[in-house]
Amino acid sequence: MNNFDTKKYPAFSSFLNQLAKDLTKFYYAKLDKPFKITNKMKGKGYDPVTTSDKAFEKFIRSKISKRFPDHQIIGEEYGHKNTKSEFSWVIDPIDGTRSYVVGNPSWSNLISLNYNGEPILGLANFPKMKKYYLNVNKNTAYVFENNKKRKLKVNSKLNFANSKLAAAFHNQLTLKQQSKIQKFIKRMQFPCFDALTYCQLAEGRLEMVAQCANKIWDIHPIMPIVRASGAIVTTWGNRNPVVGGNIIVSNNKANHKQILKLLKPLAE
Fold it and tell me: Are strands 118-126 and 245-250 parallel, antiparallel or unpaired?
């Protein structure tokens, strides 16, 4: 972890714990109302951004800047605040904007704290579901709900044959590419609901999750949470997922190896 001082975990995790509560309050006080939608791709596809995305990111940036003014900030909507700090915050103000647009509750606020580029803490906050997921150190993560917290732990003993797989290609794979991973496609049993599906794996509800085209703000906040729950996370090419791209998360090393084998024809 590049010599990160682990004694600093409590201060940072406490900040994120409070930020989760503040974000949910902010949503119901300011954003639970009609909003405007803009298509970033301007007719060449569909990549929506809403006025709520921008409001959330401004709110998150203000909280971070007030508490940690020298830290770097990288956000989906407002870019990179570059400083000399070893710490950087990566923000997806609304992960699952499509879900937000149509009223599905699975959208979330995703935030990671990185040290020298590697995510060390992650928050996935679900205002509509009134719950959030947060790791407090390298080995411990919780889901907070109804004023209670439950420790996250993957179902590590379940073997490949009995494991549940959720996947989403996000329109990134052609039919020709999909034809190369037919064995994988036949194993797909569940859809993905944005970052929530990764979090459900951390709870032990699923054993494998695969997604395409994750940006750094999609996956950085998830990495510390699932790893603290005991999961394995890499790219489809078995590389460090910090680069983003096509991501696979598994409940144990044996299953991860099996699923990587099925995805090998499309490995980066």
Answer: unpaired
Q: Helix or strand or coil: residue 61?
A: helix
Going 127 to 129 to 130 to 135, the CA torsion angle's sign is: negative
Residue 145 has pLDDT above 90, yes or no: yes
Assign 73 to helix, strand or coil. Answer: strand
What is each CA distance from 240 to 2, 166, 169, 220, 235, in whole angstroms? 15, 21, 20, 11, 6
Q: Give pLDDT tens digits for 28-68.
A: 999 999 999 999 877 677 888 999 999 999 999 999 999 99
Residue 90, classed as helix, strand or coil, is strand
Is residue 140 within 8 A of residue 149, CB to CB? The reply is no
> Could you report how far apart the first and last alpha carbons of the chain are, in Å?
25
Is the distance from CB of 124 to CB of 133 less than 8 angstroms? Answer: yes
- Which residue matches tokens 């729950």? 229
Range of weakest confidence among 44-48, 200-204, 230-234, 247-251: 44-48
Q: Which residues contact 44 (CB under 8 A, 6 or more apart)?
A: none
Question: Angle at which helices 51-67 and 9-26 pack, to 10 degrees?
Answer: 150
Of 198, 176, 201, 140, nearest in space to 266 by CA: 176
Answer whether residue 2 shows pLDDT above 70: no
pTM tops 0.85: yes
Rounded to whole angstroms, the Cα distance separating 250 from 232 reads 5
Instruction: Give the whole-angstrom CA distance, residue 239 versus residue 130.
Output: 34
Determine the residue type at 208: M
Domains in the chain, please, with CATH? 6-145 (3.30.540.10), 160-266 (3.40.190.80)
